[in-house]
Each structure stands twice: as C-alpha cells, then as structure tokens.
Amino acid sequence: MRRGMFLSLLGLVLFLSVGMVSAKTLITGKIYNFDYSQTIAGANVVVDCNGNIQTTTSASDGSYVAVYNETGDGSCDSGDALVVNASHSSYGFGSLSGTINDDAFMEWDLAIVNVPLVPEFGFFICGLTILGVIGIFFLVRRQ
Fold first, then answer.
1. Contact 23, 12 (CB under 8 A)
2. Considering the entire predicted model, what is its pTM?
3. Which CATH architecture has domain 22-142?
C-alpha cells in the first residue's frame, strides 16, 4: 500500500516537473563567413536576450545553442529583444538580431539566428587606407 502511494506521488511530482522543465526558450543558429559559403567553427558567440547574456562557442559545423528559461531569473520569452554577437580571430565580427517564436516546438519557444562574420581591417591596412585618402586629398587640392 505504501509502495503504491509512493509511486503515485512520485509520478505526480514527475508529471508536474515536466511542465516546469519544458518551459524553455531555445536560441540556435550557425556562424558563417561573410558570403554564407562556409560555416565557422570555434567562433565566440554571445547571446543577449532581454539583457540576459549567455556565451558559447560554435561547434565544428558552425552551430551554437543557448537555452533560457521562459520565466524567473535570467528568463527569455517570446517578444523579448534578442541579439547574437559572434567573433573569430581569423574571420572577423558579426551581429544580428532575431525574433523568438512562441511555442514553435511543443512547449519550447524558438529563435534561429544565423550570423555572418565580416572581416575587419587590420591595423596596417587601415593605416594604408588613411594615408591613401590623405594623399588623394592633397593631389586633388593641388590641381
């Protein structure tokens, strides 16, 4: 009798906890190079949802995942502001905002944000560009 009551109570607790656990927001996507022709592994990814920040690294296929609770501390729910920033030392930096779809996958909210990385000018190239602009300015002004 006690064993049956214990199993019934355990089943009820598990049933109620599934409802609490399933209230999640999944933010996922892939990190690409500037023209989307190649995925980037090892990129540092920062997901900012409603001011709650999670950091991760892109996997070998360029994918990343961040999971938030829908309610409570550090929550992220449909309608919240979402920004994904990604950077890689060889490929540059990229940032993109996204939209969270309410209950897109059963009880889970979902956002898919694919971020392209834009190459940055190196210090040397930047200096050459500035010197070139100054040189052209004086050349045109001289005539």
1. no
2. 0.68
3. Sandwich (2.60)
